[in-house]
Amino acid sequence: MTPITGAAAWRGCEIDYRAEGVRVLSPVEIEEIDAALRHLRAQGELDFPEITPATFPLPTLAGSFTGIGDDLRYGRGFLLLRGLPRDRWSVDDKARVYVGLGAHIGRIMPQSYQGELLGHVIDVSDVEQQARGYHAGGAQRMHTDNCDVVSLTCVRSARSGGISRFVSVAAVHNRMLEERPDLVETLYGEYVFRRMELDAEYGSGSVTKNVVIFSRETGQLTSNVSGAYPHRAVKAGDAVMTPRQAEALEEMKRVSALPELTLEMPIVEGDIQFLNNRTILHGRTGYEDWPDMQRRRHLMRLWLQMPNWPPMPANQGAHTPADAPLWLRQREPFMELPSRYLAEMARRQAELAA
Q1: 202, 295, 333, 353: which has the fewest C-beta neighbours closer than 10 Å?
Q2: Considering its fold, how many domains does the chain have in total?
Q3: CA 249 to chain centre
Q4: Which residues pair with 298 in a beta bridge?
Q5: Confidence check: pLDDT of 227 > 80
C-alpha cells in the first residue's frame, strides 16, 4: 500500500515513446537477419518449434536481443523495433523471421488450447463462432495476457484506427492509491477467474482459479487482469463478487484508460512491439476494417516466457505452467503459417457467402 517508484512507474503525458522506446534496425542488422533466414531455409522446411537460435543464427545481434529481456524487466517495459523490410520477404518468411527473433529473446509459448505458437490477431468473427478478443474487431479494453512478454508485429494495417494503447501498471496503482486506497487493497485480494472451457479441458482440467490482480511477490509490482474472467465466474455460479470487488475492477478499468497515463503507439508494417506483460496493461483503439479477408487488419502475436525472470506468482494469471505442454498436443505442423491460415479463413468466408 505504498506508491511505486522507478522506471516502470511512467505516465504517458511525461514521456515520448519515440525517444525512449523505439529502436531502428540498421541496414547491417537487417542483412544479418536476412542471412539468418537464408540459413534457416537452407535446412529444409522447418516448422516453428524448430526455429531456434541455432537454426536462426545472429552472430552479432544475438547478445543485444538477449538483453531485451533485461531492458523490459528493469526499464519502461516497452520496445518497438522498426525498420524490417516490408517487401523483401513473403508473409510466411516474415513469420519465420518474427519467430526467429523471438526465440533469441525468450521461450515461445502456446497461446490457447489449440497449441498455436504464433497467434493471428485478425477479425474472423464472421467465420468463427465465439471468437476471442484477438479474433474479433473493435476496440479492446486494457488487459494482460498470460505470459511474461507479449509481442505483436504488423502484417497489414487497418483501413483506419486500430492503434496499440498501453499503460504502466505502477502508474495505475499509484493513481488509485491517491484516490481510492480501499480499492487498491481489494485488488491485492483474491478474485475467482473462470477461464475458457476448452483451455481448461485440454489443459490442466481446472476451469476456475483464485487470482490476485496486484502482487509484489517477485519484489516488483506485477499485475494480471482480464475483465471478462471474473465476470464469467459470477455468471456461471462459481463465485459471488462483492460490490467492493466489482467497483475495484471498474475503477481500474477507468484509470487505466486515462489519457494522461496511457501511450498510443501505431504498429505499422515492418514494426515489432514487445511489452512486459507483468508491468504493462495493453489494449487498442477501435478501427475500420476491410470486408475482404485478405485485406483485413492482421497482426501476428508471440507469447514469451523469460527463463531468467522470477516465476510469475502462482496466484496470478488464469493459466498454469501445466497447461502449455498439454495444449501443444493439439498443435498441427505448420498450422500457423500465415498463408495457410488466411487461405482457410477466406475459404470459410466464401463458403458462408455461397
Answers
A1: 353
A2: 1
A3: 20
A4: 156
A5: no
CATH code: domain of residue 156: 3.60.130.10
Find all residues with CB under 8 Å of 206, minimum gap 6, and list them. 200, 320
Q: Which of 69-73, 75-79, 318-322 has the lowest mean pLDDT?
A: 318-322
Instruction: Assign 136 a pLDDT band (cuts: 50, 70, 90).
Output: confident
Exposure of 236 in the CB half-sphere (CA atoms within 13 A): 15
Across the chain, mean pLDDT equals 94
Angle between helices 91-105 and 338-353 (to 10 degrees): 130
Domain that holds residue 151: 20-353
Q: What nine digits make up the cell of 59?
A: 552472430
Place of cell 509481442: 151
Assigned domain for 15 exists: no
Q: What average pLDDT does range 136-165 have in this prediction?
A: 93
Residue 294 has a CB neighbour count (10 Å cut-off) of 12
